[in-house]
Amino acid sequence: MIDIQGLQLQLGPRRLLDIATLRIGAQERVALVGPNGAGKSTLLRVLAGQAPAPWQGRVELLGQALAPTQLLRERARLAVVPQGAPLVGRLSARDNVLTGALARCGAWGAWGFYPASIEAEADAWLDRLALRRHAHTRADKLSGGERQRVAIARAALQRPLLLLADEATAQLDPRAAEQACAWLQQAAGSGALVTVLHQLELLPLVATRVIGLRDGRIVLDAAVDDSPALQQALRALYRAAPADDATAAADAPHNFHPLLTPSTP
């Protein structure tokens, strides 16, 4: 599913990523954690084909070897829930959700025509995420939390083999954040889920494996459990000195524009 060997990414004088090896299998549930600027979102950007600078090394994703300036050919099978949930503001919540199925509908989807089965699937997700009353509300009129839920539903309609989520729980209240963890797992389906997470109390709800980054390097890779050893390792990870401004800027929230609306085959 994901196979990384010798990944290095440098922006100016600062090395943002230095990952010797990382493998994530199909159906895995993985959380990326670490202090601000550790490289979590930058790693997601590499996987999404949105790296902030050319990188070196070997990255294989969904069976395809990526080049530093190359998007995934099978990008319809890669779904992204970016932080801030950028949507098409003039479209309704329902229409934004339906865009997740564009690649499944061919040319008809590009013209806004969807099979009844896909419309029913979109409505079911709107119900599941308590968005039905906002179905016909313009996306630019929704709250941040509502937009985040629309982005999760849109990703689900892609039926992805790999779902990348960048702090998808950040704009949600505690109860909604817990629900969002379940929604992300459901949206990933039988595919893999890799999510950037700062709310460590949510780890058991969204992941079975936790990868900790600091200064662009993997310093923790463990199963999610309630062991004192893991709790101690997480505390040590966040006691590290904060990264400098250049690293934090490169790892800041951003939009994964080419993946917001999957291209038709």
From TrEMBL:
Keywords: ATP-binding, Cell membrane, Membrane, Nucleotide-binding, Translocase, Transport. It comes from the Bacteria. PROSITE patterns: ABC_TRANSPORTER_1, ABC_TRANSPORTER_2. It holds the Pfam family ABC_tran. SUPFAM superfamilies: P-loop containing nucleoside triphosphate hydrolases. InterPro entries: AAA+_ATPase, ABC_transporter-like_ATP-bd, ABC_transporter-like_CS, P-loop_NTPase. GO terms for molecular function: ATP binding. Residues 2-240 form the ABC transporter domain. Part of the ABC transporter complex HmuTUV involved in hemin import. Responsible for energy coupling to the transport system. PANTHER family: HEMIN IMPORT ATP-BINDING PROTEIN HMUV. This is ATP-binding cassette domain-containing protein. The lineage of its organism: Bacteria, Pseudomonadati, Pseudomonadota, Betaproteobacteria, Burkholderiales.
